[in-house]
User: Fold this.
Amino acid sequence: MKFFRDTTEFFADRKSAVTLGKFDGLHRGHQVLTKDLFAAKNQGFQTVVFTFGTHPRALVDGHPQELLLTNDERHDRLEAEGLDVLVEYPFNETTSHTAPDLFIKKILTEQLKAKIIIVGTDFCFGYRRAGNVELLRKMSGECGYKLVVKEKLKTKEGIDISSSYIKELLKLGHMEKVNDLLGYTYSIRGEVIHGNHYGRTFGMPTINQVPEKGKLLPPNGVYVSRTYVDGKYYRSVTNIGVKPTIDGIRPRGAETFIQDFSGDLYGKTVEVELYSYARPEIKFENGKQLEEQMYRDRAAAMDYWKDKKGD
Assistant:
């Protein structure tokens, strides 16, 4: 996959199909767009996702990034799906003032050689978001591309499947619903770092991770999880939080006990999938209470998998 980050100098090698958007999450709503994109690949078109390295809102009003997928996670997921070209367009004073018609002519048709453009009904672009689906449709004949406009995918309750809605659910810890709307299992990926090694003292060694900056985490608490290590999945149980009983208050992160695994993971990047919220994070009166609860958490997490076939 060709990858262009933080540059306006990018291109497609041949006629392409392009889909555009923020793609924070690559959730089921986004997958409506990418499904048509990859269908075009079977017709000989080069596939292009055009998105942003930093969410424009974060730069315009200082709103902190809250990412369902970090940029690196998004890159890896699209590469695994077979995307040909990923453009993370820089959003700055210069690029934000690009006139919509110039964006279509120069970037989409000249640089990316777009012959198919796939967008959602509410897609806007260019200076002050003045460009929209109607402009794309109006200029399609002049610029020689086919415009495909996809309706928003909705939940069975009639709610638009969007990153903002999924983030609301994630902040409440509703992992089953989050995973359903994502179309895959929400995960935390990060390097394994040294903790206090407390779990080793009573037979429950854990790995510690600090997620990448900007990654949105669910509420502090214990979660049924599954951990991917060296090409294999292991059942696990994960605590999201600050570990108040032993360490006082530490930076917020993930601590995971991996069932039926032994080995040194320090310095390795590991992915932990979260399936179900079990309980809130608690400050216990002493280490003994914590140990007893960790054994109960492990037993409950393993019980979760009893009726899950193929996991």
About this structure: The chain has a mean pLDDT of 90. The longest helix spans residues 287-304.
